[in-house]
Specification:
Chain lengths: ~120, ~130
């Protein structure tokens, strides 16, 4: 299979995973107790977090498959599209204030990740 | 309030560092295991065999730490902050690839590296949390 099929699967599932996780954790409020058991219980008891782990697992499985047909230095940068998509969704769905400095920084990172693929 | 802001910034820096370290080391261990261990052909059986490679197991444990620390970080920091700031991991991944996996870093890749570092610093200087 073309490496780009894996890349597409990775990007879509990564974006879904991160947006779900950020949305639910914002609702939970600032974590003060960092016990692994407590974090795990939170992770397993909230549907959006369970869904985010399922998407992460899909992304992980596709990433393992991609590493078999491409270098790590292609595999990681090729997923850079998710950076921009996630920032747009953070603004639209999570109602975050994305300041000009954040847009500029995110664009710079995405450009850098793209260049890293060459 | 400045006091609680500096507390939140310090906590954010620590967690961002943990998130990046577990991600980079986890990716590296996985990549090493995939290249030197059992072959993965996409079938569920080969997936199980690959998962029991020690390097792959170490990678999975590190990535589990990555998920939990990132989950905690996202409870107080914005996604649009966490994403670019933890992207410094891309640079470290590339350096690990060059040092240990014999992947080459061309001048364009170095340029990309500087862009990522610049973007990370730029976003890192903004407040981690924008809403009340």
């Amino acid at each position: 299979m073309s490496p780009w099929v894996y890349v597409a699967i990775i990007v879509v599932s990564t974006v879904a995973s991160d947006v779900l996780q950020s949305w639910e954790m914002k609702r939970q409020g600032e974590v003060m107790d960092f016990g692994i058991g407590r974090l795990l219980r939170t992770l397993l008891s909230k549907t959006p977090l369970v869904a985010s782990v399922v998407f992460l697992a899909i992304s992980f499985y596709a990433f393992l498959a991609l590493l078999q047909v491409a270098d790590l230095s292609f595999a990681v940068p090729a997923t850079a599209l998710s950076l921009v998509a996630e920032t747009i969704l953070a603004r639209l769905l999570l109602k975050e204030t994305v300041t000009p400095a954040r847009w500029a920084g995110t664009a710079l990172v995405a450009l850098g990740v793209y260049l890293l693929a060459h | 309030m400045p006091v609680s802001n500096s507390r939140l910034v310090r906590k954010t820096r620590w967690f961002a560092a943990i998130v990046v370290a577990t991600n980079v080391l986890g990716n590296f261990a996985l990549s090493w295991g995939m290249k030197h261990g059992a072959a993965f052909d996409g079938s569920p059986l080969s997936f199980v065999l690959v998962v029991f490679d020690p390097w792959v197991l170490a990678g999975i444990a590190l990535l589990a730490g990555w998920v939990l620390s990132r989950m905690a970080l996202l409870s107080w920091a914005d996604l649009s902050y966490v994403i670019p700031v933890t992207s410094i991991g891309f640079v470290l991944n590339a350096i690990m690839g060059a040092l240990f996996l014999q992947e080459t870093i061309s001048p364009l890749r170095w340029l990309g590296t500087f862009c990522i570092v610049g973007g990370t610093v730029l976003v890192g200087l903004t407040a981690p949390k924008t809403e009340p």
